[in-house]
Amino acid sequence: MEVMNDEFYMSLALDMAERAQGQTGINPVVGCVVVKDGAVIGLGTHLKRGTGHAEVHALNMAAGQAAGSTAYVTLEPCSHYGKTPPCSERLIAEGVARVVIACEDPNPQVAGRGIAMLREAGIEVEVGLLRERALRLNEKFVKYILTKRPFVTLKSASTLDGKIATRTGDSKWISNESARGIVHTLRHRHQGIMAGVGTIIADNPSLTTRTEVPGINPVRIIIDSGLRTPLESSVVTDGQAPTIIIAAETADAAKEEALTAAGVQVLRCGAGPRVDLAAAMSRLGELEIGSILLEGGGILNGAMLEQGLVDRVVLFFAPKIVGGGAAAPAAFAFDGVELMRNAVTLRGVEVEVLGDNVCISGIPELV
Ligand code: AOF
Ligand code: ZN
């Protein structure tokens, strides 16, 4: 049985925000619950960048009755004129008496000013209720708003011996249905999905979101130094989502022209014959891609990890062992460390058991 308290309403606000993940672009997900005289009088969630913030929807629902109420908001109300007017002003104008906030807004345009505005207007403000959950929920937003580079989630599905295919290249399927379902939900929750050209040539994947209910397709991003992506591959021809190919400076101009004519956007990143992955992340950030799900092969995964470009890993393990030595590709292929104490180590580890599969997630830390 649940107890009615501040946490009860903040959890509701967080639940609403959680379900809107994937549809707000570079904006955060935010939930707001307005409570007065023991009853909920307004609920709101930010649904889409450029449209109303959570507080605005909730206060609109409260229809002028919010004076003296308590508003629970998962993120500090904004203080700036962005695509919409400041929520702090609206809360003040409505006569809200108390505002409970889960976490501060790291956006430099806000960063405490929203809280200050509310307090200056005489509103009782409490900050920090369920802060950790709120920050975890908006980890993509926090990274992007502070660095202008995308938050990268590396996903892999491997056998217990770390393989993503057998020595003959067979890989269907490694993980079970629940794990595969989660992967498609993860696709929905990222603005971009990234793979290497090797994966495109080997598997011709569509890299779309296929969930039980319709989901949003991420922009497909292919790392392809030499522009080897076949013109007849699904990511070029199926029109399911935009495709960006990231190539090196030296790649063939005629191939670029053919790909561009087929509707693909080709970006050149890095001076030499290989893609500069860090530069690629900055370019994608400029294009307002704030989050990327990396579904690479071992080499791309290893390179991104080694260069510190991965913000979270989500690793699915199936109870299988396929051996195969170097002929069977591994989830991570990089030179690696000499000593165990120098291993890439995960912080904030979360473990989820999915039937006979296991999902291990965490934030990788390089030594
Ligand atoms: C809130 N409530 O529901 C959201 C907030 O361009 P705009 O107007 O949508 O502003 C985006 C910024 O506003 C975003 O970077 C973040 O700082 C804040 N988002 N704030 O009070 C909301 N979505
Ligand atoms: Zn706002």
TrEMBL record:
Keywords: Hydrolase, Metal-binding, Multifunctional enzyme, NADP, Oxidoreductase, Riboflavin biosynthesis, Zinc. Binds 1 zinc ion. Signal peptide: none annotated. Pathway: Cofactor biosynthesis; riboflavin biosynthesis; 5-amino-6-(D-ribitylamino)uracil from GTP: step 3/4; Cofactor biosynthesis; riboflavin biosynthesis; 5-amino-6-(D-ribitylamino)uracil from GTP: step 2/4. It comes from the Bacteria. Its EC number is 3.5.4.26, 1.1.1.193. SUPFAM superfamilies: Cytidine deaminase-like (SSF53927), Dihydrofolate reductase-like (SSF53597). Its cofactor is Zn(2+). PROSITE patterns: CYT_DCMP_DEAMINASES_1, CYT_DCMP_DEAMINASES_2. NADP(+) binds at residues 157, 173, 199, 225, 297-303. Substrate binds at residues 171, 187, 203, 207, 210, 295. GO terms for molecular function: 5-amino-6-(5-phosphoribosylamino)uracil reductase activity; diaminohydroxyphosphoribosylaminopyrimidine deaminase activity; NADP binding; zinc ion binding. In the N-terminal section; belongs to the cytidine and deoxycytidylate deaminase family. This is Riboflavin biosynthesis protein RibD. It comes from Paenibacillus rhizophilus.
